């Protein structure tokens, strides 16, 4: 089983920063980037069921938003292989509460992510084994 990293965000500057930090913190040198939800859902559907996904997800995007994405993921029978990090500029407590209702949401981070955020990602119990140094 391996871990695929996806960034779903329509802000090119945010994506650039996230890619740099993911590489610097040895999480991923080449994450898949999607500027909208639909192509990301299509990509996930096309992948075999033997992969897990770490998904950095923005809430506010044009068209389908992060909440729509979570709704679609929550319908999947194998949703335990999706590990979503909400990365948002929202500081609304109700957004954090709403995110906590989805079993696949592992963390809620404010933009921009930092090295400390990357450390938190690597320490998430459900995926930490992917980052163990041998």
Automatic annotation (TrEMBL):
Biological-process GO terms, alphabetical: phosphorelay signal transduction system
Keywords annotated in UniProt: Phosphoprotein
Keyword Phosphoprotein set for record: yes
Record flagged with keyword Plastid: no
Residue positions, PTM 4-aspartylphosphate: 58
InterPro entries documented for this protein: CheY-like_superfamily, Sig_transdc_resp-reg_receiver, TCS_response_regulator
SUPFAM superfamilies assigned to the protein according to its UniProt record, in alphabetical order: CheY-like (SSF52172)
Pfam family, one: Response_reg
Coiled-coil regions listed in the entry: none
Domain Response regulatory stretches: 4-126
Name the record gives this protein: CheY chemotaxis protein or a CheY-like REC (Receiver) domain
Species per Swiss-Prot/TrEMBL record: Salegentibacter flavus
């Amino acid at each position: 089983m391996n871990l695929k990293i996806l960034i779903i965000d329509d802000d090119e500057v945010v994506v650039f920063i996230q890619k740099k930090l993911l590489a610097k913190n040895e999480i991923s040198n080449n994450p898949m980037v999607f500027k909208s939800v639909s192509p990301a859902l299509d990509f996930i559907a096309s992948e075999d069921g033997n992969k897990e996904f770490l998904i950095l997800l923005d809430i506010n995007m044009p068209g389908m938003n992060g909440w729509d994405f979570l709704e679609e993921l929550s319908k999947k029978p194998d949703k335990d292989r999706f590990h979503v990090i909400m990365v948002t500029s929202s500081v609304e407590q109700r957004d954090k509460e709403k995110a906590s209702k989805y079993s696949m949401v592992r963390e809620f981070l404010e933009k921009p992510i930092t090295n400390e955020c990357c450390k938190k990602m690597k320490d998430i119990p459900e995926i930490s084994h992917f980052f163990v140094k041998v």
